[in-house]
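quick one, two chains, predict together pls
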Amino acid sequence: MKVNLKINDLPVAVESGSTILEAAEQLDIRIPTLCHFKMDCFHVEHKCGSCRVCVVEVKGRPNLAPACCTPVMEGMEVKTNTLRVINARRTILDLLLSDHPKDCLICPKNLNCQLQALAQEMGLHHLLYKGEQSTYNKDLSSAAIARDLDKCIMCRRCETACNTIQTVGVLSAVGRGFQTVVAPAGLHPLVETECVFCGQCVQACPVGALSEMDYKYDVWRALNDPSKTVVVQTAPAVRVAIGEAFGLEPGSISTGKLVTALRMLGFDKVFDTDFAADLTIMEETTELIERVKSGKNLPILTSCCPGWVKFLEHQFPKLIYMPSTAKSPQQMMGAVLKSYYAEKIGVKPENLIVVSVMPCLSKKYEAKREEFSHDGVPDVDIVISTRELADMIREAGIVFQDLDEQDYDSPLGESTGAAVIFGASGGVLEAALRTAADWIAGKDLENIEFTAVRGLDGIKEAEVEVAGLKLKAAVCSGLGNARKLLEKIERGEADYQAIEIMACPGGCLNGGGQPYHHGDMTILKKRLDALYREDTGKPIRKSHKNPSIQKIYEEFLGEPGSHLAHHLLHTTYVNRKQ
Amino acid sequence: MTKIQTPAELKELAATLKNAPRPPVKLLVSMGTCGIAAGTADVLKAIREEVAERRLENAIEIVEVGCMGLCYAEPVLMLVDRESGKRLIYGDVTPQQVPAILNAGTAGAAPGTRTLERSWYYPECEAPAPGELQARIVLKNTGCINPEKIEEYLMNDGYAALAKVLTTMSPEEVVKLISDSGLRGRGGGGFPTGRKWSLAAAQPPGEKFIICNADEGDPGAFMDRAVLEGDPHSVLEAMAIGGYAIGAQTGVIYIRAEYPLAVKRLEIAIKQAEEYGFLGKNIFGSGFDFNIEIKFGAGAFVCGEETALIHSIEGKRGEPTVKPPFPAVSGLWGRPTIVNNVETYACIAAIVRNGAEWFRSIGTPGSPGTKVFALAGKISKVGLAEVPMGTTLRKIIYEIGDGIKNGRQFKAVQTGGPSGGCITAKNLDLPIDYEALKAIGSMMGSGGMIVMDEDDCMVNIAKFFLEFTLDESCGKCTPCRVGNRRMYELLEEITSGRGTMDTINKLKMLSATIKDTALCGLGQTAPNPVLSTMSNFEDEYLAHVQESRCPAGACTKLIHYEVTDRCVGCGLCLQRCPVNCITGERRERHLIDQNRCIKCGVCFMACKFHAIEKR
């Protein structure tokens, strides 16, 4: 049913149940917002109405109405720019800034801050109100997420990300009055909580209260240490997002420029996590086929995503036998580099520094898991996010957008289309199915696209029949969706054989370490398209056809699932239930 | 215990109970929280011992009652001669006085005791007797019956209203009755109760809830506690009536955990009501089921706001959400829910018994019925008073409250707690109801009245109320979380002598924005004490910022003490000064070192020659 109203004297008809903000959008009237956050492709709208920046005048209502959460009514008359509204809006912003540090120049969100943008948009050049400012200790306890609560503006977006989307439930409002802040219960440091470091809170935070732990300087130091050989690996989702940091159109594929930039930064070798993704498929698919054939320990769950793995360890410890024991691509690459490759080039593992560029913040935590170190030497030494790499490229004076395109180093830089789609939700499963189908059928199949598992939907299902073997698979992204699926499994109501789970909604392309999307979902869709374009453009699109993969099994690992492969490429999980 | 299944059985039981033989004298002992805090428990112990020793069990019936409203004189006892109806009220009773009081009986005051002249608290009727200042609807039984004995409630028409509703009225008729009565929510906003009920009743059938808001938290308001401690069944009965009217089968009492006695008495009352069948399945054979559970609040004032209250019951953080949707449409667990406060419920049974017409005959056309006020602050007789709406403040303060303490001058009275405003002498003769209070910049609120005298600085008072709101804000929206903090800081600038005209301007602007933009009632009304003191006592604000002077002499940073030439050099002030900042030889005029003086006022009070002046 349509509802008719007027905004600034302009008539508009919108669906009943719409908000004033949505009606204004139809008229191209911009109402500033701050706490409001909409991720429509994941069906999430955060509209707690807490910041009050979006207040508007509604005829007949005694006080101002927050446009983001006030439903429209027939005959409503709304004014968005009266003096009363402008005064209120400015005062609200003034108040927010009166309790916000003014160190914008050195803030991790500088130029990416929506509070800063709002102040500029409103032309606020001097502040009326001064007074006590909140002070808290910075939480730098984890390897992944830095929290600076002095900057928290109580928009509660992170809370929605953590509780509603991810159902991790670590962040909530604590305290009352002026002392209210969003934090783990009891103001505990993040590392002591069930946080999985997915970083969706960081993506959601409009200001510098939440950001990644910054390891750029560690990379600079390693690069300039003559005693170290420094190699880098880049995850699939990085190449379709990093261009955004340099003004390239979202969805631009910057693989070649990325490699060039990394060489210019001084990395000795530039490898591709995609290689390890192909390796993962070899191991995981072997396990999948074994389990399906034996009918034991089904369904098999993917294990590429450290956020999801930690979630399982905390929330569903009874199911820790289910994920594939295969390490994530990042850790497989680390293990191969510190053994096979180090030996090959004659460098001691401790003198080989492995840097990862990841779309993810949880990878920073994953690299520090004790399972992934040997004799105190971690397989992956330093993890930086897409954003941190962009910062380094800028700092080095490299004009990214103008760079030539170069290729990854061989042999650990060669990859297939199956690997690049690891960056999207559904990609790992599709890659595994491509290989599984060939192996079961015993021939090189032509039809390799499993489109049912593609896209940004939270839960996707597919039934595949290969050479008489029926496979029911599910893909889910976003931990809230994962919880639903796992609860179904616990109740014995699911009959899947394979499930892919990614912590971040949409998969790694929407990782916590990617350039900020600020709720613009078209960016995510463009990144998604780019990943599948990259896949289609690859000459080889099945992991087991990657010649470098075939070579590493011949030369070093033996066959998938071999003893050495198990030693290097597989891991175990821990019950973290408290 | 046999369950009561018909109204006739209830009537018969009440008659049997009434006609049972009883001792000729009843002795009411005030065992509300206020009485117990003042020492009534010891007095009661002494009474029991004395009665046992002298074998007076058949002569005197001891009745432990809730608050009698005479808080200024607790512990309070009342002797009632059943035959003659003669009463004798004792105040400030000590255990030592008990033998003498029992000796004297109802004949006359015992020597060495304090009797309280006034009997205004006891008209014992639901309608105001002609010429009476008070009516008793809400407090009908409070302070008269033992709240832990359901039989005493039954003797006083208890559950008769529920019986009537369930056996003779349709839910629509009940809603209409309440709408027609004009009853308005007594918790603060004064929203018409009937309208709330009809909105919930109009929702499609299914699970619905009826909630009693017993999260009383206004500073200086304690009438809900008095009702819960003194007459818990009146609330249970009304909730069941409400449940029937809107189609809810579950009632929840949300009560602050700081009211342990009220909780205990509610628990007893619920159990007793269940035993008699007034709660539970098939009440009065009508097929209507209703149960009540108790949920504890953790002491957050904002949980008095209905959406915050509902979130708290759901186990979520107690903070308000934007309305609409209103709880009557989507409330507890997303189901239609009614939230009414204790005093509102306490009116329901009387309305059912006597009709809407009767209720409308009391009070004013816009605000029918009575209102309980809690008198506190600088008033002679601190306590509870229930008066018809439309009574003037002068009558409440001077006739019931006996004027200002220590013969000081009345300055203002704050109604509506931290969300209200102050009312000055010029409005003392205004008949007060919801609209009248709103019109003069205050509000009814829950009915707390804090009386202030000439020693109270109005800037300081505004700061006091704002400080309360600051502590109790949930911190969700910017205007309340940050704005009120800035307001408080601006007020502090003024009371410490750092304020300028700019400070006052900022206060005005900020108040306007906060009122206009805060999310819930708590934030929207937080500036009220500031705005109303600014408009009524602007001169005091100006004195602070323009002359660095606090006219009431309350802002310590703006006052100083000086020794005048009346000083005889006795040295008493010098001895008493806690920071040794007074010097002077014996028999010579002393001197206060202003740099070290902490303005505690000890010297001022100590001086027997009035030689120290506060300036």
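The mean pLDDT of chain B is 92.
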